[in-house]
Amino acid sequence: MAVKTSRTEKKVMYDQKLCKLLDMYSQILIVGADNVGSNQLQKIRHGLRGESVVLMGKNTMMKRSVKIHAEKTGHTAYLSLVPLLVGNVGLIFTKGELKEVSDEVSKYKVGAPARVGLVAPIDVVVPPGNTGLDPSQTSFFQVLNIPTKINKGTVEIITPVELIKKGDKVGSSEAALLSKLGIKPFSYGLVVQSVYENGSVFNPEVLDLTEDDIMEKFAAGVSMVTSLSLALAYPTLAAAPHMFANAYKSVLAIAVTTEYSFPQAEKVKEYLKDPSKFAVAVAPVAAAAATSATAPAAAAKEEKEEPDEESDDDFVSGLFD
């Protein structure tokens, strides 16, 4: 005979399980579980089995367990989870890659009909085409101002119609029409709302960032720090190369316009005094290049002229024979 567990014992067991998971895992996905059924949740648990654990429960119980465990262990980082436990949420403890776990969770979404009073998570558009309904059902379309026509004894929608907008509540007429058309416009599953990792909490959109995105953002940040440092004349590691380059240009400008000099400025000053010295070195190279370019043309011209001379000699000798 099975021993019945009291509510107090269940709370104690739940508290122990949650505290154990907090000690074992440093990565947690906080997921919304609105409109997720038990069968769907079971499939998600099975799909994540091996490296992740899904824990659902009442918010008050989870908050209480987290606070008490943080006080006992001294790990105050756990307290950052408390503000996130709002609404119908659950926790996924994992040791795997957060991006892969998030993608795996998103696979288990199922279609759902539009129920009356439900807030639409997306826009619902009824596509044009034959509905398969008989003409007696046209009243549904007339109430919703959907243009139709009778084609071969059935109702046909002429143009696509935005039936429900995101954020609006589903009315009885909209729900009845979508049900008759066999359209399940919504899909539900666990939705990652926040990510906890080693005491830090961040938006799940961070998981979609690639290495190129990170490098681009890092480069933009370095550029901003450099610009600010140069504007304030405050030395930083990012601005140091630019400061040295600007300082060298300033010293070089002073050396050029005054008698002061230093080894790196000697060549510049020498060039400014007599640019022809540097042009002489270039002239032979240019002449050699011009010679090499004209030589083949001259040789070709000589080859063409030689046959003409031979033909003239042959003509003269033949004339006096």
UniProtKB/TrEMBL annotation:
<dbReference type="GO" id="GO:0005840">
    <property type="term" value="C:ribosome"/>
</dbReference>
<comment type="function">
    <text>Ribosomal protein P0 is the functional equivalent of E.coli protein L10.</text>
</comment>
<comment type="subunit">
    <text>P0 forms a pentameric complex by interaction with dimers of P1 and P2.</text>
</comment>
<dbReference type="GO" id="GO:1990904">
    <property type="term" value="C:ribonucleoprotein complex"/>
</dbReference>
<dbReference type="InterPro" id="IPR001790">
    <property type="entry name" value="Ribosomal_uL10"/>
</dbReference>
<keyword id="KW-0687">Ribonucleoprotein</keyword>
<dbReference type="InterPro" id="IPR030670">
    <property type="entry name" value="uL10_eukaryotes"/>
</dbReference>
<keyword id="KW-0689">Ribosomal protein</keyword>
<dbReference type="InterPro" id="IPR043141">
    <property type="entry name" value="Ribosomal_uL10-like_sf"/>
</dbReference>
<dbReference type="InterPro" id="IPR050323">
    <property type="entry name" value="Ribosomal_protein_uL10"/>
</dbReference>
<dbReference type="InterPro" id="IPR043164">
    <property type="entry name" value="Ribosomal_uL10-like_insert_sf"/>
</dbReference>
<dbReference type="Pfam" id="PF00428">
    <property type="entry name" value="Ribosomal_60s"/>
</dbReference>
<dbReference type="Pfam" id="PF17777">
    <property type="entry name" value="RL10P_insert"/>
</dbReference>
<feature type="domain" description="Large ribosomal subunit protein uL10-like insertion">
    <location>
        <begin position="114"/>
        <end position="183"/>
    </location>
</feature>
<dbReference type="InterPro" id="IPR040637">
    <property type="entry name" value="Ribosomal_uL10-like_insert"/>
</dbReference>
<protein>
    <recommendedName>
        <fullName>60S acidic ribosomal protein P0</fullName>
    </recommendedName>
</protein>
<feature type="region of interest" description="Disordered">
    <location>
        <begin position="292"/>
        <end position="321"/>
    </location>
</feature>
<feature type="compositionally biased region" description="Acidic residues">
    <location>
        <begin position="305"/>
        <end position="315"/>
    </location>
</feature>
<comment type="similarity">
    <text>Belongs to the universal ribosomal protein uL10 family.</text>
</comment>
<dbReference type="Pfam" id="PF00466">
    <property type="entry name" value="Ribosomal_L10"/>
</dbReference>
